[in-house]
Amino acid sequence: MVSATFSVPLHKLNAGFIDKIKAFIGHEEDEPNLLISVLPKLEPAQPGESGGKHLNKLERSIEEIKKGEAISFDSIEDFETFVAWYSAADDDFESHMSDDQFNALGEAIKMTHDENNLIPQPEAKKLVVQWLNQKLSNG
Amino acid sequence: MAQPKTVKWLNKDLIELFDVALYLQDAFGADTAQRFVFKAFNRAEFVAHQPEIGRKSKRFSTLRFVLLGKHHRMYYRIEGSNLYVTYLFDTRQSPEKNTYR
């Protein structure tokens, strides 16, 4: 596992930045074994700024990380997806949902209120893997 | 860092996931199908650690979604310590058609 940490202001994350990262790490595979972390950038101490004030900024940044506001990504794809969500000018998929699709989503929300309709992830994973293996062995 | 949420799948979404996997297996082979399935579970686990990362639904205030590759999106909602995978959408197709059967 290669680890890369980028410390940049979130508002500067865009497609151009991702291309730079890809070029930097020589990304070619679909699922690279790479951990990318993006941390909030701490502004350097300004001229004339007291050491104490700068320390306060640092402490604030550490607090943000503790609250989960520092975001790390398990793959380039996760990173790209995140940036796409935040940089996309508009997302009109939901505006074009049909009534049926809209109702199905509403119905699904209701269903999640009944534990009988729910399967915890470990069991869910086991079930799907089991189904797939059965399908494979049956050709 | 906050405790990760417990992921629970709506049973009908699991069937949908399986259907997608079967389609992928027939069309592109077992490896592709398995990759998609594990991507779905990994993505849910990823979101469980950072539930606010999903984009908010414009039409359902309690829902957020993340993307599964280019053509699927996974909707989820958070309640207390649980994360409910609520709906899997194929964004390319008409919703009236189940393209995987």
Would you mind describing this structure in some detail?
The complex is a heterodimer of chains A (139) and B (101). In chain A, 50% of the residues lie in helices and 13% in strands. Chain A is α+β, with helices and mostly antiparallel strands and 139 residues long. The relative contact order of chain A is 0.11. With 101 residues, chain B is an alpha+beta fold. In chain B, helix 1 packs antiparallel against helix 2. The interface between A and B is large, with 41 and 49 residues. Strand 4 of chain A pairs antiparallel with strand 1 of chain B, so a sheet runs across the interface.
Layout of helices and strands:
The complex is a heterodimer of chains A (139) and B (101).
Chain A: E1 2-7, H1 15-25, E2 34-39, H2 51-66, E3 71-73, H3 76-87, H4 99-111, E4 118-120, H5 121-137
Chain B: E1 6-10, H1 11-28, H2 30-49, E2 55-56, E3 63-68, E4 72-79, E5 82-90
Parallel strand pairs in B: 1-5
Antiparallel strand pairs in B: 2-3, 3-4, 4-5
How far from one another are the termini of chain A?
35 Å
Question: How many runs of DSSP E, i.e. beta strands of chain B?
Answer: 5
The assembly state of the depicted protein chains is heterodimer
Q: Beta-strand level of the residues of chain B, as a percent range? A: 25-35%
Q: Could you tell me the number of beta strands of chain A?
A: 4
**What's the average pLDDT of chain B?**
81
Total of DSSP H or I helical runs spanning 4+ residues of chain B: 2
Our count of helices of chain A gives 5
Secondary structure class of chain A reads: alpha+beta
Share of helical residues of chain B: 25-40%
Summarize the helix and strand pattern of chain A as letters: EHEHEHHEH
Q: Report the sheet with the most strands of chain B, covering strand number, pairing sense and barrel closure.
A: 5 strands, mixed
CA-based shape of chain A: elongated
Tell me, briefly, the overall form of chain B: globular
Radius of gyration of CA atoms of chain A, rounded to a whole number: 22 Å
Q: Order the strands across the largest sheet of chain B as they lie in space.
A: 1-5-4-3-2
Low-confidence stretches of chain A: 27-33
- Can you give the mean pLDDT of chain A? 68
